Amino acid sequence: MADALAQLDDYLAARRPEFEDRLTRLVGIAGVSADPAHQPDIGRTADLAATLLSDAGLDARIVPTPGNPVVHGEYRAGSDCPTVTIYNHLDVQPADPAQWDTEPFRLTISGDRYAGRGSTDDKGPALTALQAAQYAIVQDLPVNIAFVWELEEEIGSPHFETFVRQELPRLATDSVLVSDTVWIAAGRPAIDYGLRGLVTFEVSIETGTNDTHSGLTGGPARNPLAELAQIVAECLDPATGRVLIPGFADAAAPVTDAEIDSFVASGFDVATFMAMHGLTSMRTTDVRSVLAKIMGEPTFEVHGFTGGYTGPGVKTVIPPRAGVKLSSRIVPHQDPRAVFDLVRDFIQRRHPDARIELEAAMPAYLGSRTGPHADAARAAVEYAFGVTPAFVREGGSIGAVLTMDQYLKAPVVLLGLSLPSHGYHAPNEHYDWIQAAGGTKMFAHYFAHLAAGGREGR
């Protein structure tokens, strides 16, 4: 394997301008999947993505779906060679130029820093993996490499399953790499092996047809906002975050002490975490408790109330209807539909005329911290960054991971490169050459590891 990687440093130095040119071109397209006005930009992103894959030596195609297309590229070294598939997404979050120090959809290069919307989420990591694949192709490594670049991840991947199902024969693979996760701390690489699931729903109550004057009706008139506040209080202890619904967490897989030890080894710091997210206080500041809650425990969250008067001053009316937007992050072994049914039944037994509507349901994902592909990932990170990675779970959800796990029947390894300081979804999002260079080495080592082991790691 050492011979296969011997020229990697020289390759990186020579290819940096090409990497920066590619990232400049991609960031320059505002492929905001949530905004229909940017639909032409989604098409332009797909066209450019296919060109980039083709220029790197892969066979590229744009695969239509009922929604946004998926860009697929593949390099075939041979039918007896192991196959690895790399997943990224190229759609991005919206960006308000007034909140940015630079133009969000024009890459600004300042030394090793690359600022622009999508630079770290997820265009920079995607191009990092492509740069490593290009090296593997130049070195003629006996490994098949495929890319799946999605354009709907930021809106929940509504048509990704359709793509996978219709393309399943061509997507056969021995392992999947997903590079869309964030380290816990700079200089302390982290490999995610789990993701929480998500259930979103809304509860509403209607008690009349129009606003009424509280001086004329206050007292006997029902107040839907107050009743919704009661519902929330019955479901959740706001001081501790403990869910009060009987049986809510019964199916949840407990987090072991060994897992929490690994979480702590990621370099997590409570004060840094609070500063990064603008938190002035938390329910707990015990590092083990914080990490267990984020990475391995279910939640019940309140996101917003609707209804009533919210303008200046106080308008003394009682609204006829109101709603509250809620969600639960769920963990392995919890069934999302069963969780919703439990919450719905709990509320309706106490408030028969409350309406509870399910918005979305996504199960949790739990991979493995051991085995040949986890070992290959660990070795690749150690080679690239000189540090043994911590295996952690991520508190968020990636729908595409669940789809690939279900249909491709191959180990999914989450090898993210973004740092907390890079500003996922935030103003002044950026990526950097240090992560890009290290990431290229990481992916190249993973490819070489698979190539050296042949198909034994299947």
Automatic annotation (TrEMBL):
This is Cytosolic nonspecific dipeptidase (Glutamate carboxypeptidase-like protein 1). One of its GO terms (molecular function) is carboxypeptidase activity. Gene3D superfamilies: 3.30.70.360, Zn peptidases. The keyword Metal-binding applies. Residues 193-352 form the Peptidase M20 dimerisation domain. Keywords: Hydrolase, Metal-binding, Protease. Pfam families: M20_dimer, Peptidase_M20. InterPro entries: Cyt/Met_Dipeptidase (IPR051458), Peptidase_M20 (IPR002933), Peptidase_M20_dimer (IPR011650).
